[in-house]
Amino acid sequence: MSSQFGEKIADGVFSRYEGKLLTSERSDFQKIDVYDHPFFGRVLTLDDLIQTTTRDEFTYHEMLVHPALASRDRVERVLIIGGGDGGTLRHVLMHGASEVVMCEIDDAVIRLCRELLPSLSDGAFDDPRARVVIGDGAAFVADHEDAFDAIIVDGSDPVGPAVVLFSEDFYAACRRALRDGGVFISQTGSPIFQTDEFQMAYGNLSASFGACEPYLSFVPTYPGTLWSYMAATDGAQLRASSGIEARLRARGIECRLYSEEVHHGALALPPFVKELCETARPVPVPRG
Ligand code: SPD
């Protein structure tokens, strides 16, 4: 029997999908559903918001992970916050990191994704370099100093428990947890439909790091398709990167979306997005 699912994107704007509900579970943190969809394949939703699909996950995970890591000559220790489906973990491991810690608050997401969307992680959870910690990402970061070359936040939208992952305090803690020259990356929502979220991330990251570089790509199943990410550093910035194709080749990474040309194109911001950046200020996060 088919069920409809989808999300409210803005007043009067809704997405609607039709698929077969495979499982629905309420964890301590959220409602987790997995559907079989005739076009997008397996679809994971959390509290009814689409997180990933087996068909378009590459558009999101490649652009979350590779621009920052393919810009670096060495990637040793990486922390992923969230990312329970394992897609980010799989892509990070491609860069030859010696240890990748994934701190995910909800073990039910990992269990269901390993069972029903195994292509997302594709064995990454069994890689000896991967260490999964079940717990609160903000608390985990606050306990670490000078520990990681990259911190990647692969969270949900900033509502409920995920809102803290857009706060200035959290970003400042991430900066302390990074080694010299480290990079912080996060998905930062739709620059069309989620301008508050975009500006909150940009304002708070700019207050905590020397530089914050937004970049854009697309994710077909996310609201509005156009999607934003931000990389924050105190050192070399993504727009100055070169030698990306050579690093991808040396690491044996074959992408479907990301390339050196796409890297530089993604960092070229249209005027309306530049304006969002120019008018963004640090803001306290609303209570979840
Ligand atoms: N609006 C959906 C934003 C979801 C971002 N995280 C997705 C997790 C995929 N690994």
Features:
single chain, 288 residues, alpha/beta, Spermidine Synthase, Chain: A, domain 2, Rossmann fold, 2 domains, seven-stranded mixed β-sheet, five-stranded antiparallel β-sheet, 14 strands, 31% strand, globular, binds spermidine
In short:
The chain is of the alpha/beta class. The chain has helices spanning 57-69, 87-93, 107-116, 118-121, 137-142, 168-177, 195-208, 244-250, 260-266, 271-278, and strands at 2-5, 8-10, 13-14, 17-26, 31-37, 41-46, 49-53, 77-82, 99-104, 130-134, 148-154, 178-189, 211-218, 226-233. It has 2 domains: 2-52, Spermidine synthase, tetramerisation domain (Spermidine Synthase, Chain: A, domain 2, Roll), CATH 2.30.140.10; 57-278, Rossmann fold.
By helix and strand content, what is the structural category?
alpha/beta
Number of strands: 14
In angstroms, what is the radius of gyration? 18 Å
CATH architecture descriptor text of the largest domain: 3-Layer(aba) Sandwich
> What's the overall average pLDDT, rounded?
96
Count the domains.
2
Assign a percent range to the helix content: 25-40%
- The topology string of helices and strands comes to EEEEEEEHEHEHHEHEHEHEEHHH
Indicate the low-confidence ranges by residue numbers: none
Q: Sketch the major β-sheet.
A: 7 strands, mixed
The CATH C-level class name of the largest domain? Alpha Beta
Distance between the termini: 35 Å
CATH superfamily of the largest domain: Vaccinia Virus protein VP39
Which small-molecule ligands are present, each listed once? Answer: spermidine
CATH topology of the largest domain, by name, is Rossmann fold
Content of β-strand: 25-35%
**Strand order across the largest sheet:** 10-9-8-11-12-14-13
Q: Give the count of helical stretches.
A: 10
What characteristic shape results from the CA principal axes?
globular
